[in-house]
Design goal:
The protein has about 575 residues and is an alpha/beta fold. The protein is built from ten helices and 31 strands.
Length: about 575
């Protein structure tokens, strides 16, 4: 038998691309771990410019998957020549997702085209509800029945929140923690009204309808890493749980890290996404993917969100799979992630998993110098990563527990909402000024309060500022001018719009003493005889003789001065 030969593949002729200009400047980032961010329904504008000038007659095209009918289809959009040095192109993304684009140039009237020397760029398009998200976390075990929650929706909206995050609603296992599920597809019976005949999903669906009527979005928690130790899954399909011969029931517990090292959650067992049997592994992945889609279905009906709990501890190949399924099925559902990892991993995984918002943790920065540095970090990565920055979370203490006084809610929420990048929120109880956090585990008395919450008007005003002032909705425009003050953080937010210089945000975090603060805004404001501004929190008007002035702030006070 004669010896055969495998065909030699053809090597295409792809000479190194030459730049159309010596010093080409792109308004968008390029590279393997670089990408832009945009919103569906809002214009996305890119420019290409040179310090010298483009040759007369030069043309440019944008080649992109943005707004193409199919994911692998490319469309061409002409750049407009603004002047001898600049081309610009504007496109309004029609749907969320991760898309690529690059530029072509012609100097002979379109007869031949030259590829940009850096041909591939990427843009992660967020659902529109990500912009200015103001989220209220509702604690189910202190809020009565699902029917009662509808009345709470009205009050939550009156405070200026547009999204309600529900801790997991699934049937509770023996520890009675919402993060320890007994069954992933049923509602905890204690949340149901009398006369519902145990059909919790029907009652939830009425709640979803009420949220839609109020134009309130819902965020559903997804707990993908573990289930309850006495859950249906652990009892009926123990092969789906990571084995542990040292455990009495041979099932491995989930762990958490603290100052004592790694400690077990004795009520939680780990799902075995790496099961050695291909058949069983496929069954596990399919079942948990359906769990994610099941709750995303309800989020989708309110243009809402899902939240990945503890994503940094999740099995990354499964996250690849489930995030792809979520985006393919419900592309308009936003994804919030509790995701703590290094910057390199963020840049590699945020676009791949379509993570629209990451949880920020400003409560971990209890002192002013720490918080200032944390805010600087948020802005330093804002080109690629969007953060959701609440004042505290359901896992943290209350503002009084974390920062020493209930009144610290004022400067802390102003900082979270107006020194971040727009997405902010609170956990139930903060509006009432509760001294201690609400315990979301176990049977707890219903939180029944009458009258107007202590911070309701304040929260409404800050949320209104977030909603109406675009200067607070993006990053990279937060310039700290407090000279490292130990008690005050002050930052000037520069505005992109013409004739809108920006806003000065000043917060006194001292819970006991007033603080005097001297500022100089000459780098941001025109030199005029007098400078007028208004405090957006109170409506009080100020006039300064020069860009340099002094303000005295009482304890736990804040100013938001619009010039």
């Amino acid at each position: 038998m004669s010896v055969t030969r495998r065909p030699v593949p053809e090597l295409p002729e792809l000479p190194r691309t030459q730049s159309i200009a010596k010093d080409l400047c792109r308004s968008y980032p390029t590279g393997r771990l670089e990408y832009s961010r945009a919103f569906a329904g809002s214009p996305f504008e890119i420019t290409i410019s040179t310090g010298d000038q483009f040759a007369p007659g030069t043309q440019a095209l944008l080649v992109t998957t943005l707004n193409a009918k199919h994911p692998i289809e490319w469309i061409e959009i002409p750049f407009e020549r603004q002047n001898d040095k600049t081309f610009s192109c504007q496109i309004t993304p029609s749907r969320p997702g991760l898309f690529s684009f690059w530029a072509l140039f012609s100097t002979d009237g379109g007869k031949t085209w030259t590829h940009d020397a850096i041909p591939d760029a990427w843009v992660l398009v967020d659902p529109p509800q990500v912009d200015h998200m103001r989220l209220y976390t509702l604690i189910p075990n202190v809020s009565g029945t699902i029917a009662d929650w509808s009345a709470e929706l009205v009050k939550i909206k009156q405070m200026g929140f547009n999204t309600v995050h529900l801790l997991p609603l699934t049937t509770l296992d023996t520890s009675r923690s919402p993060y320890s599920a007994k069954d992933l597809f049923s509602i905890e019976p204690s949340y149901l009204s009398n006369g519902t005949n145990g059909d919790g999903l029907a009652e939830l669906e009425k709640f979803v309808e009420n949220a839609k009527a109020l134009e309130m979005r819902l965020c559903f928690d997804l707990v993908l890493n573990h289930v309850g130790v006495d859950s249906h899954m652990a009892r009926r399909a123990p092969a789906w749980i990571v084995p542990d011969e040292t455990s009495p029931d041979k099932l491995r517990r989930a762990h958490y890290f603290c100052d004592k090292g790694w400690l077990p959650w004795n009520d939680l067992v780990l799902i075995d996404y790496e099961h050695p049997s291909q058949r069983i592994r496929a069954d596990i992945w399919a079942y948990l993917t359906e769990y994610a889609l099941f709750w995303a279905h309800y989020a989708n009906q309110t243009n809402g969100f899902v939240r990945f709990d503890n994503l940094h501890s999740s099995f990354k190949p499964f996250v690849d799979s489930v995030s792809e399924a979520l985006h393919a099925t419900y592309p308009n559902v936003g994804i919030i992630a509790e995701y703590f990892t290094d910057a390199g991993t963020l840049l590699a995984t945020v676009p791949k998993w379509h993570l629209n918002l990451l949880l920020a943790t400003p409560w971990d920065s209890r002192f002013v110098p720490q918080l200032r540095e944390y805010l600087k970090f948020v802005h330093s990565v804002s080109k690629h990563v969007r953060f959701f920055m609440p004042i505290t979370s359901h896992d943290s203490g209350s503002p009084a527990q974390e920062f020493g006084a209930v009144e610290s809610t004022i400067p802390r929420y102003v900082a979270a909402a107006l020194m971040g990048t727009g997405a902010t929120g609170i956990t139930q109880g903060v509006e009432w000024g509760l001294e201690e956090k609400i315990n979301f585990i176990g049977a707890q008395p219903r939180l029944l309060r009458t009258g107007i919450p202590m911070f309701a008007d304040f929260l409404h005003r800050v949320n209104e500022i977030v909603a109406t002032e675009p200067v607070f909705a993006y990053g990279g425009n937060c310039h700290f001018i407090d000279n490292g003050h130990e008690a005050i953080i002050a930052a000037f937010r520069t505005d992109k719009r013409p004739n809108h210089p920006g806003c000065l945000v000043i917060c006194n975090f001292d819970i006991l003493k007033e603080q005097e603060f001297k500022f100089n805004l000459s780098a941001f404001l025109p030199q005029t005889e007098s400078i007028a501004c208004v405090d957006l929190l109170t409506g009080e008007k100020f006039t300064f003789d020069s860009p340099s002035a002094t303000l005295t702030l009482p304890p736990c006070a804040a100013y938001v001065l619009k010039f």
